[in-house]
Amino acid sequence: MSFRNFKMVDYVVFGRGAFNQLDEILAPRRKADAPMIFLVDHFFQGKPLAERVPLRGKDEIIFADVTYEPKTTQVDALANSLKEKFGTVSGVIGIGGGSTMDLAKAVSLMMNNPGSSADYQGWDLVKQPGVYKAGIPTLSGTGAEVSRTTVLTGPTRKLGMNSDFTPFDQIVLDPELTKDAPVNQRFYTGMDCYIHCIESLEGTYLNEFSKSYGEKALQLCQKVFVDKDYWDDESDDQLMMASYAGGMSIAYSQVGVAHAVSYGLSYLLGTKHGIGNCIVMNYLEEYYPAGVKEFKYMVEKNKIEIPEGICKGLTDEQFDTMINVSLGMKPLWENALGKDWEKIMTREKLRKLYEKL
Ligand code: NAD
Ligand code: ZN
């Protein structure tokens, strides 16, 4: 038996206003004549946060268009334009939700690895460390700030660049940055964390490491979405730490049924990760009875709309595409249903589930 020896984020700063320390944090990482590139979620264009980015010398802010989740083509275009313009850069700093943080990780890696990011979708295919990279979340829930992957949609699949070179060198956890997130978005991304916890805690890969983080993350999600009747600064603090702990929990286990099914939706229909997981979770009583019951309660209590009927009118071929993408996520199914998962989750059963969504 051999145990996973996984790479973690090197430096973590947590606190309200921690963003103000960014200039100081980056100073020792700057190389002569190579700028820092700040990849900032396009939501912040023209907003006060963009003014607070500590630009020096030839540094640039690039506003990341995250209307769609990150694509390999988008990563390649960004990395190639930076290489053409600057040769190399001192670092890539991602400021935004999971999409922007994933873009920053992938662009950093592609600054030092040849070819297209699509060549590295999979496990441990990245051969060279990227340039210095830092992640600064403005939404809490994905755990992208701590994970060893960056999820990209490529020409043939939606799959991460999973590697020891993928985690950030630094993360800045400043809950103030999540303050103005819209209620629905905050819920969908928050539920990504809740669902990570349920999938990890109910999974066959669970060990005490995952369990300890998963239980803490779940408790924090319950504090903000079940116990409280209002949202305050403490809720932002708690959800940010839930995301961190939830990410740590799946780092040593895996996600499960909701993610495996939601990946199919996202590949075919472009459904976004957070909302896609919620659409699926609504129908997973059979696999996660207690989690789904509580999930439904949170949806109602927080007055959130979960879309229904998104698979109505799809063709057999389209259902097959989703089923192929989903069943391709073998570790997720194995974690959820055990070694014999293929006998449990047949194509027919999965088709029935997709038809309900
Ligand atoms: P997101 O990054 O896709 O952003 C969703 C929307 O919220 C965007 O319109 C964005 O502009 C906006 N936004 C971001 N911060 C805001 C703020 N403070 N106020 C107002 N609006 C804001 O959303 P997400 O749920 O954080 O991330 C989803 C992405 O994360 C997907 O691409 C998914 O594949 C990825 N993901 C990655 C991992 C990983 O381990 N790498 C894990 C889970 C999900
Ligand atoms: Zn997720």
UniProtKB/TrEMBL annotation:
InterPro entries: ADH_Fe/GldA, ADH_Fe_C, Alcohol_dehydrogenase_Fe. Residues 12-175 form the Alcohol dehydrogenase iron-type/glycerol dehydrogenase GldA domain. Keywords: Oxidoreductase. Pfam families: ADH_Fe_C (PF25137), Fe-ADH (PF00465). GO terms for molecular function: alcohol dehydrogenase (NAD+) activity; metal ion binding. The keyword Heme does not apply. Residues 188-288 form the Fe-containing alcohol dehydrogenase-like C-terminal domain. PANTHER family: 3-DEOXY-ALPHA-D-MANNO-OCTULOSONATE 8-OXIDASE, ALCOHOL DEHYDROGENASE. This is 3-deoxy-alpha-D-manno-octulosonate 8-oxidase. It comes from Sediminibacterium goheungense.
